[in-house]
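Retro notes, item 3 of 5
We never archived the inputs for the glutamic acid complex last cycle. Fixing that now. Sequence and ligand:
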Amino acid sequence: METNQSVNSRMDSDLEVLEMDLSKKNSSDRKSDLMTSGGQKSVETESGDPSTENMIYRAKLRDRKRIVVKVGSSSLLHSSTGRLDYHKIDVLVRELSDLKNRGKDVILVSSGATAVGREVIRRTHAGTTLAEDSPITVKQACSAVGQARLMMTYQRFFTDYNQISGQVLMTKNTIGDPLSKYNLCNTFNELLKFDVIPIVNENDSVATYEYSVGDNDNLSAMVASLMNADLLILLSDVDGLYTDDPRVNPDATFIEYVPRLDENLMKMAKGTTGSSSGTGGMSTKLQAAMIATQSGCDMVIVNSRHMKVIHEVVQGRNHGTLFRANLNPDFDLQDHLESME
Ligand code: GLU
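Structure as it came back at the time:
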């Protein structure tokens, strides 16, 4: 059986060959290189060979040290019942625990509080429907119940894998207020020093519209930016970025590599993923990519159908859409937050 070490050294030598090939290519090859053999599309790059550049760049993800993983509500629940999918949570926790054992700093941003709490209250109050568009006060109550339930579940699984996890709840105010932001960063730093896996969510039970980030795609990118993470993985119920909505347009092409996020790509975003339990659509994912990449952090959107995809992404395998870090020294998270209002 092939070991991780032999896979890595095989990939290293493959990549050396690819890097040599790439350096030999001349610019006249560029246009034909835009489409990859799988019908997938990468965006035109400076080197002119996006699919090769994608593979070379992805191999570097193995060296990323501080990784933020964001999981959405729909990835944690059985769609048929709305209850927690323990099998998926188990694999998610195992993957994160293994990254930790490899010496990485790991931060999990998990949604699910409202959806889990809603399901618990529905079950204990027969006849209560608790529609998804119920008033904010109801959602806040659901999230108070669900957040505790979610943490209890994570704690149990992380304990099984000999890991310590801790809860960090925040709102937009936590980042906007300098003292709260200072405290938040100190807490994260201490937790990481103690080898704890912080589990982050929005503090939904106290956040009303004007105080909340609203979606955990943006929240996870803010955490990645604040904590100087070098890789953000958004686990989603979509495969990644397409040129159009693939459910509506059969000609939509998948984009595997985005070397630089520009206005054209931002416009490709759609407002929904088709999921009923979370809030993040493709547009929030691209907003997150803007924050992450300008903060110098690579970001990958990947389908959470199989949670083992996490270690495969970190190994450099070609899953989902990779947005390459483009550190902008003028990027200021606080200004950016204000511009989003
Ligand atoms: N913070 C919300 C929750 O845990 C989810 C937000 C989102 O879906 O992005 O219920």
